[in-house]
Every structure is written in structure tokens, then in C-alpha cells.
Amino acid sequence: xxxxxxxxxxxxxxxxxxxxxxxxxxxxxxxxxxxxxxxxxxxxxxxxxxxxxxxxxxxxxxxxxxxxxxxxxxxxxxxxxxxxxxxxxxxxxxxxxxxxxxxxxxxxxxxxxxxxxxxxxxxxxxxxxxxxxxxxxxxxxxxxxxxxxxxxxxxxxxxxxxxxxxxxxxxxxxxxxxxxxxxxxxxxxxxxxxxxxxxxxxxxxxxxxxxxxxxxxxxxxxxxxxxxxxxxxxxxxxxxxxxxxxxxxxxxxxxxxxxxxxxxxxxxxxx
Length: 271
Known about the structure:
This protein has 271 residues and is an alpha/beta fold.
């Protein structure tokens, strides 16, 4: 239970957007709807008007094995420099979104120790010859590749403490497959997703596509997403997002819009 009693009834539910009001004799199923908090944002292919009361920031795979110079990708010779580019803009965007009252959701690859929910098709992507060097392989003293609860799967240190925010472990390219992400977002009353992370053309795109298929409004923040793949892969991903799955916008434009006095007033913050 959370919140304060209303008309003698007590709120029952883990998120304010999805609560009953109850007592020993009555159950009120009418959910309280948050007042809209509009935000105008330059975007492509069209300008957008968002409702901050129904928007969440979703950050994908900004974790040590993908982004740290001592992580898994770096250990197998991948240049992780591009994967680190979104860190600074995401730090700024995360802070601004949280200050605006938006949920921040971390979607990180985090395998079970026994890998029993990973089929051969998933394992083959990272261990094509079966030599055992992919998901779950041990890399030095850091732990096993992308295993939940280890340094390998943890958010990179530049973001500081993220324990108060929402974390969802995923086990494939998409953050929606076999995870509670959809249920969490719907319970929060979220309809619009601001998205960033790595790799743009793989896990970010797959998660964004699945979000679109489920009816979410999807906005990729361009400076907040990158890939270690060839540059043409990023161009193709951006084209397909704008053409088929949602919108792209500048993180700088978002930060400017959130800093506007009118936006601050909608969340009770003095400008």
C-alpha cells in the first residue's frame, strides 16, 4: 500500500497511476489520473508534444562488459570508445528527467548463473565456434560475462548510485522479451519512452522496436545512443526508427526544454 487515505479509503497498489481505493467494505476501481504536463520538443520526422506525467527514460546496456575499458568487449579486442560516448549526455539527461519526476529505468543484460533461459541461438551470437568464450565465460577476476549481480553486468561507475531507480535484467537483444519491463511500465502509467544506450543498432533498436509493437511512443535521444558496429549501422538504425518505429530527438533540445520556466512550473519547481 502507498499514498494517503482518500474519502476514508486507503490506496492499494505499487504505483500511483494504478491504484484501487479500499476499506473493509468497499473497493473503488476508479484510478486517479495524473494531470498532463506537456513538453514541446523538436524531433524528427515531426515536432513532438510529450506528456511528462506519462514519460519514462529507458537506458539500455550502459554496463561494464559493454562500455568499460576492462570489460568483456574490450577484452576481445573491440574498441569500446564509441560505447562510452553516450555516458556524458546520459548523465545529464538522467539527472534532468529524474528532476522532472520521470521514472528512470535501467535495462541491462544480466544472465542467470546457470544460463538456463538462454537457447543456442542466443549463445551462438557470442560464441559462434562453441569454444566457450561468450555469455557466462569467466574474464579474469571480474566475474563471468554479463552475469547478473557481478561487476560485469553493473552500470558503469560514471552514473554513480542507481539503486533507487528501476532495474530490469534482460537476456536477449530486446528488453521486453521474457522480462517484466512491459508490466512495470504499464503499472507506472507510462506511454512514452525516451531511450538511449548501446548498441544502437542491436539492443537499443530491438528494445525500441518491441516497445513500438506494444503501442508505446518511442523517442530515441540521438547523443545518448551509440554503437561499436560500423557507422552505416547507426545510420540505418536512425533511418528505420524515424521511418517505422518512432522519432529521434536531440538530448540537448530535451535538456533545454526541461529547463524552460514553464516546464519547471508544471512540476512545482521554481525557475
